[in-house]
Write a structure and sequence with these properties.
94 residues, mainly alpha
């Protein structure tokens, strides 16, 4: 939901977007632990799929973490672009 609130120019929407992204990043930790607990009991072919799944989730969590940190450094538009892969690699108008 944070990707939908971020573009609004009011402080309330931006703060809510930041909190939602932080909640998503924080929830990745217990989710990963749960996945690992199930992964260790699986057969080798399933474990390979699990490794790829974990790697893609780690990459996505890293992107969300970078998006969460960008506004702290004064780069709100960059944070939005990191969450939307359809955008160009730089904020609009730059």
């Amino acid at each position: 939901m944070g990707i939908f609130l971020g573009p609004f120019n009011d402080d309330g929407s931006r703060q809510a977007a930041k909190r939602l992204v932080a909640l998503g990043v924080a929830s990745a930790v217990p989710t990963a632990l749960s996945g690992w607990a199930q992964w260790i009991t699986k057969d080798r072919p399933i474990k390979r799929v699990g490794i790829m799944h974990a790697a893609s989730n780690a990459a996505a969590t890293t992107v969300y973490l970078a998006s969460w940190a960008a506004p702290e450094r004064g780069h709100h538009e960059l944070g939005i672009c990191r969450l939307r892969p359809s955008h160009e690699d730089h904020p609009a108008g730059t």
